[in-house]
Predict the structure.
Amino acid sequence: MQNRDSFYINGKWVPASGKNRIEVINASTEEVMATIPDGDENDANAAVAAARAAFDGWSMTTPAARSDFLRKIQEGLKARSDELAKIIAGEVGMPLKLSAMIQVGSPVANFGIYAKLANAFQWQEVTGNSLVVREPVGVVVCITPWNYPLHQIAAKVAAALAAGCTVVLKPSEVAPLNAFVLAEVIDSVGLPAGVFNLVTGTGPVIGEALVRHPGVDMISFTGSTRAGKRISEVAAASVKRVALELGGKSASIILDDADLPTAVKGTVNACFLNSGQTCSAHTRMLVPQSRYEEVAKLAVEAAKNFAVGDPFGGSAKLGPLVSAAQRERVRNYIRKGIEEGAELLCGGPDAPEGLPKGYYVKPTVFGRVKPDSTIAQEEIFGPVLSIITYRDEDDAVKIANGTLYGLAGGVWSGSDEHAMQVARRMRTGQVDINGGAFNLGAPFGGYKQSGRGREMGPYGLEEFLEYKSLQFRPDATALTANAAH
Ligand code: NAD
């Protein structure tokens, strides 16, 4: 794997201002995959200056022209899919096949979705004596995490470019290599200089320099609630728009009339995907008290299907966690669960057998977890499922809503209608009804401390737009004749 020495700023690869480097570690071998520059305030300033200078031109392009660029970026990423899947399987640890399907498939699709939307979106409309036009918010800084690194980048960058914004991307320093490939693709399609810029480094240094910068109009952030709060504080000084996609502690409510084997298996899958490092993971399984024994047995069986192993090995469903720090954090939560008296049904804090290298954690299921205990309240971000029992439906909804978070969830029932009724009572941004699949066109985002704003589809495009009202006199009909589009 190639070391990276430069940032992509103003349409060129330019050396970083400082000499410091960050090592990118392969999650399954624990070896250094590559190094990247540890950017500083000078790099932030250069990237913002480029994005600022490019804004006037890019914001005036037609949606059709922007659509053409997005389509070319989609094609460029698609052509490098195999390479990207390998990079992300190395950086993050997700098994290669899944990595190709999800970590690469979804960003490729997203660039296509925004290419279409740029053309289909209603950019202006008439209301009373006003022509209301939608305009790009300006220079956008995108700060992204490591768990679905390219997916989270695409959700922001494709939408922001479609909107007519210019972009500075600061990807996660833990899984940044995929972002360099994206920058190469963007360079190869001839996007005007300064429209997209890439810098890397740590959150507190280059991240905060970007958030503070007076030349930036909006921060679009995905990551931890802790960092989201800090970013909101720093951005408040200059009243920037801040969109936040943060953590979660989502509940899967299994109702008494659900098909238990399907519901339990579906919940375990929704918890363990990407070794549990998914913000919308269904980490709390809520089940009727009277069905606990049945459910516990089924959950252990389902967890056993998650073969732990080398992401490049072929048969593993559960790769390593992303880093040594993340593994330690998850093991500490497992120890805490045991200390607080939950029943350890399978897994545990010890390393899985036969895997001396790599940040592996055993798929772990806890039973009879108290709703207010640490493992039922805090985001663990590892393959750890908590089974919680409830008395009746009201109790289930109360427990589901009883955390600081509100990102996702699920309801399982013999009747879709019944499940929908319960889903409507959940204070959360997404609910899967009887295992309904993830939809790239539906709004994604959180209630409460899971964030502010929505990504994906037209809802994600709106995040990057301002409204402008142009008032006209009654005889100015010619001005509004084409207003529908
Ligand atoms: P993190 O908050 O540590 O880092 C995310 C990004 O923010 C990184 O690029 C980091 O460098 C940067 N950053 C950190 N502190 C910063 C600061 N003070 N100023 C500016 N930038 C800063 O999160 P992570 O560990 O990379 O990712 C895991 C977290 O992301 C989990 O909590 C997960 O739930 C959340 N997440 C949320 C969503 C969502 O859509 N809601 C999606 C994926 C992940």
Remarks:
- The first helix runs from residue 41 to 59.
- The chain has a mean pLDDT of 97.
- Residues 143-147, 152, 170, 172-173, 202-204, 207-208, 211, 222-224, 227, 230-231, 245-248, 279, 379, 381, 407, 446, 450-451 surround nicotinamide-adenine-dinucleotide (CB under 6 Å).
- The two ends are 46 Å apart (CA to CA).
